[in-house]
Amino acid sequence: MSGHIMTTAEVAKILTSENNRQIWFKVQDSQLMKYILYKGFIGIDGISLTVGEVTPTRFCVHLIPETLERTTLGKKNLAHASTLKSIHKLRQW
């Protein structure tokens, strides 16, 4: 993944179930939330992910065990900082 870092975000909430971990991020600059779209793509610490949910100040991603094992996201705790990159992808219908 390449591109420019858009901003940073802090881990605000972590929900864990048997086969999934949901991590909520609070974006440092809330004005940038308009670029984070539900089911859109975002780069977190260089890892391309799909946005699971969006609120006016936060968003989350859903992580499966494979992603948690192969990336640093499985080691994130509350208040950990991450870099964000917006990934724009056009869909052809």
UniProtKB/TrEMBL annotation:
PANTHER family: RIBOFLAVIN SYNTHASE (PTHR21098:SF0), RIBOFLAVIN SYNTHASE ALPHA CHAIN (PTHR21098). It comes from Escherichia coli. It catalyses: 2 6,7-dimethyl-8-(1-D-ribityl)lumazine + H(+) = 5-amino-6-(D-ribitylamino)uracil + riboflavin. This is Riboflavin synthase. GO terms for cellular component: cytosol. Pfam families: Lum_binding. One of its GO terms (molecular function) is riboflavin synthase activity. Keywords: Repeat, Riboflavin biosynthesis, Transferase. Catalyzes the dismutation of two molecules of 6,7-dimethyl-8-ribityllumazine, resulting in the formation of riboflavin and 5-amino-6-(D-ribitylamino)uracil. Lumazine-binding repeats lie at residues 1-93. The keyword Glycoprotein does not apply.
